[in-house]
């Protein structure tokens, strides 16, 4: 086996997100802008990918006006400050069996994070999936968080949100 580099195939890669609140959940997609993965001896060893925060879509809100309003709120400083921070990124620091560790940067704030990933290589194609659980408050996203506000009742939004990452990459 050898060392290989894989470029992420943007059209074949996606991230599904889910955010939860007391009264339910919202979900949608967010795009991968670019990235690469490194493999040695058939095992993932490193890489990074860039998330296009402006591409966030809300799939559970079907009314166009409500959806646009919700997008505007997610784009605002209450959440992702998309005008100032149009990208988020994840850079792998270590891989131990199927546990991937790295640095996640959202809104210019970086924290270490780890998650389990399933990686497979068939010919010149690498596929990787994993669920990243993110505590939004670590990245300055405090809107309706019980850690920072009291008496929220059924307007409370839980701190953790999920990113279900599905990456397809081609040998460079």
From TrEMBL:
Residue stretches making up the Lipid/polyisoprenoid-binding YceI-like domain: 5-170
InterPro entries: Lipid/polyisoprenoid-bd_YceI, TTHA0802/YceI-like_sf
Pfam families according to UniProt: YceI
UniProt protein name: Lipid-binding protein
Lineage, broadest ranks: Bacteria, Pseudomonadati, Bacteroidota, Chitinophagia, Chitinophagales
């Amino acid at each position: 086996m050898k060392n290989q580099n894989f470029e992420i195939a943007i059209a074949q890669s996606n991230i599904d997100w889910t955010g939860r609140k007391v009264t339910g959940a919202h979900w949608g997609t967010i795009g991968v802008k670019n990235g690469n993965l490194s493999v040695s001896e058939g095992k993932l060893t490193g890489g990074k990918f860039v998330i296009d925060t402006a591409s966030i879509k809300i799939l559970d809100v079907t009314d166009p006006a409500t959806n646009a309003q919700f997008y505007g709120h997610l784009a605002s400083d209450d959440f992702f400050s998309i005008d100032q921070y149009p990208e988020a990124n994840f850079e792998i620091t270590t891989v131990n069996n199927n546990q991937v560790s790295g640095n996640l940067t959202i809104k210019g704030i970086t924290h270490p994070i780890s998650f389990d990933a399933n990686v497979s290589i068939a010919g010149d194609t690498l596929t990787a999936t994993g669920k990243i659980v993110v505590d939004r408050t670590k990245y300055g996203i405090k809107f309706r968080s019980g850690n920072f506000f009291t008496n929220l009742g059924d307007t409370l939004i839980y701190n953790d949100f999920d990113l279900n990452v599905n990456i397809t990459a081609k040998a460079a």
